[in-house]
Amino acid sequence: MAVNKRTTYADAGVNINAADETLRRVQGAIRATHGPSVLRGLADFGGMFALGQGYHDPVLVSGTDGVGTKLKIAFVLDKHDTVGQDLVAMNVDDIVCMGARPLFFLDYLGIGKLRQETATQIIEGVAAACARAGCALLGGELAELPGMYADGEYDLVGFAVGIVEREQIVDGSEIRPDDVVLGLASSGLHSNGYSLARKALLEMAGYRLDQHIQELGCSLGEELLKPTRLYCQDLVPLLGQGTQPSSLGQPKGIAHITGGGWYDNIARLLPAGMNAQLDSAAVPVPPVFTMIQTAAQVQTDEMYRTFNMGLGMAIVLAPEDVDEWTQALTAAGQQCFVIGTIGTGAESVQLRF
Fold first, then answer.
1. CA–CA separation, 283 vs 350, rounded Å?
2. Is 184 helix (H, G, I), strand (E, B) or coil?
3. At residue 349, what are phi and psi to the nearest 5 degrees?
């Protein structure tokens, strides 16, 4: 009598041994992000983080985001060591906008067929960015999901939690007319607008990802995979934290210029009746944006509603605080521009071209 083959989980497309080996490979990088606040138990079904002392009235701030269709570029080029920084930056720099110091980070990697080298590159990239941001990579999920993703493709999502003293929350409520908007330069596209960028550059203009572009000084693929700039490691030391007030004036509002560009993100800061009067010429536009606009004939206001256009962060400050903040951020390596002022009016963002 024939003996029937016994079916295993691996036969269904899920290789638990490969997942275990991948996690073993990245343990060193993950634990390098852990400080004494990270607690370990016998059965770690959840990550534990001790808040400790130093806050009178602490408030936790959370955020979640993904890398989006920028991943499509990583798939084609089979280059996965930069998207981890994209993921961390998209999350921690959102919660820093509330004045929060990032405490810990969680990631989710869903993949159709687990390739250990690919997953290792991704997770090590997340861990390295967490270390730069000063937060612990506390846990995550590595899910092999046969049939959910095309071969060689995956999705990457993150979750950040930070802390801020209640009195030091930055929420825009103190913004007043004549306050100044200080901008910080982006490193390029960051992680937003890639559906339009790919359509314009690859489909409409017919560029190849391996094609060297003189205006960019690199190949198109290298430009499109430039990691999203991390701002929190330079902003957090300048913000008041817990019982330790900042030596600088407290920002009145901070906007991370992500999806929605200048218009939507800066508008989120403003109290009713206030508007931001901004000068687009104050921020140099990286050439990749000009290439996209030319290739797809995109209207200028649509570009500023979709992309960061060279502006990664916008900080609203009292006029007397601008010089000190500019000096401190420049010393930290950030490129700063005064891009406008706060006024009154029904239109939240008035952008001069």
1. 15
2. strand
3. -125, 120
Tell me whether residue 173 is in a domain. no
Residues 209 and 338 in one domain: yes
Task: Give the pLDDT band of residue 77 (cuts 50, 70, 90).
Answer: very high
User: Do 186 and 164 share a structural domain?
Assistant: no
> Which of 37-46, 80-89, 303-312 has the weakest average pLDDT?
37-46
**Contacting residues for 120 by C-beta, under 8 A, at least 6 apart:** 22, 25, 26
Beta bridge partners of 340: 181, 278
Q: Which amino acid is at 206?
A: G
Run of H or E residues at 99 = none
**How many domains is the chain partitioned into structurally?**
2
- Report the distance separating Cα 90 and Cα 100, nearest Å: 14
Q: Is pLDDT above 60 for 1?
A: no
Res. 42 pLDDT band, cuts 50 70 90: low
CA-CA distance, 56 to 43, in Å (whole number)?
A: 32
The answer to whether residue 2 scores a pLDDT higher than 60 is no
Report d(CA 250, CA 168) in Å as an integer.
8
Rounded to whole angstroms, the Cα distance separating 128 from 140 reads 15
**Residue 268, domain member (yes or no):** yes
Domain CATH for 22: 3.30.1330.10
Whether residue 174 is contained in a domain is answered as no
CA distance 36 to 304: 43
What domain range includes position 237? 180-352
Same domain, yes or no: 158 and 193: no
Say which residue the tokens 């959910």 belong to.
148
Q: Which residue has tokens 């391996």?
A: 210
**CA-based radius of gyration for the chain:** 22
Across residues 92-109, what is the average pLDDT? 98
280 and 347 fall within a common domain: yes
